Amino acid sequence: MLTRIFLLAVIAAASALRIPVVVSRRAAVAGATAAAIGLAPANAALKPCPSGANNCWSSASTDKTKLSTWTWPSSTSRTAAMADLRAALQAYPQEGQGGVDLGGWTLVEDTPSYQRVEFRSGIGNFAKFFNGGKPFVDDLEFSIEETTVGVRSSSRVGDSDFGVNGKRLNYIAAELAKKGWDAKGVAL
After folding, report:
1. What is the pLDDT of residue 121?
2. Which of 114, 113, 162, 163 is nearest to 140 (CA)?
3. Do you know which InterPro entries this protein is assigned to (predicted)?
4. Per-residue confidence at 125, pLDDT binned at 50, 70, 90?
5. Any idea which of 29-33, 68-72, 108-112 has the lowest mean pLDDT?
6. Exposed/middle/buried for 131, CB within 10 Å: 0-12, 13-18, 19+?
7. Pair 69, 169: CB distance under 8 Å
8. Distance from the Cα of residue 89 to its chain's centroid
9. Cα 5 to Cα 74: distance, rounded to the nearest angstrom
10. Degrees (nearest 5) of the Cα angle 53, 59, 61?
């Protein structure tokens, strides 16, 4: 019901401003769900990590969780940079790497200026013991600006991730660095 009210309010506001609206039911539900659980909506600035977090890295942070923005080569167009970013993400194995993200990943939001990927980790006995048998879910977000990419990788629950988010970021940053990007990972 709340989703329907939200969608109607957005359509009414767009209509009053004479902005054409094309919204699928799936997109509306995804946006409302993301807002309800506190995820950054598409085209919004990335959030910093909570102060002192041990399971989050963000280019919007100012403390120990600070991650530098990633910059593509000046000779690369924004469109080509987006293709590089997608290719680096596609190179990330679905079965995980180095004992990380054994449950795979899904690109759940993809616009010209924002991407969000869900990773599942901690499957098997570990998840049964610590998370009621459910995998742990982490979010990886990219905010694509004019010449840089803001990055945020964070666990949804808990305070420790055993370095999972950092290993994931380092893998993707290394793939981008092969293409000439200034994409620094994190110290583990």
Report:
1. 74
2. 114
3. DUF1499
4. low
5. 29-33
6. middle
7. no
8. 11
9. 44
10. 45
pTM value surpassing 0.85 = no
Please name each of the domains of the chain with its CATH number: 1-38 (no CATH), 42-177 (3.30.310)
Give Rg (Cα) of the chain: 18
Task: Look at residue 35 in the predicted model and tell me its pLDDT.
Answer: 43
Q: Distance (Å, rounded) from C-alpha 95 to C-alpha 162?
A: 18
Contact 92, 173 (CB under 8 A): no
Tell me phi and psi for residue 117, to 5 degrees.
-120, 135
Q: What is the DSSP string of the chain?
A: -HHHHHHHHHHHHHHHTT------HHHHHHHHHHHHTTPPPTTSPPPPPPTT-BSEEETT--STTB-PPEE--TTS-HHHHHHHHHHHHHHS-TT-BTTB-TT-EEEEEEETTEEEEEEEE--THHHHHHSTTPPEEEEEEEEE-SSEEEEEEEESSSSB-TTHHHHHHHHHHHHHHTTT-B------
Question: What's the pLDDT tens digit per position in 134-162?
Answer: 677 899 999 999 999 999 999 887 777 77
The more confident residue out of 38 and 50 is 50
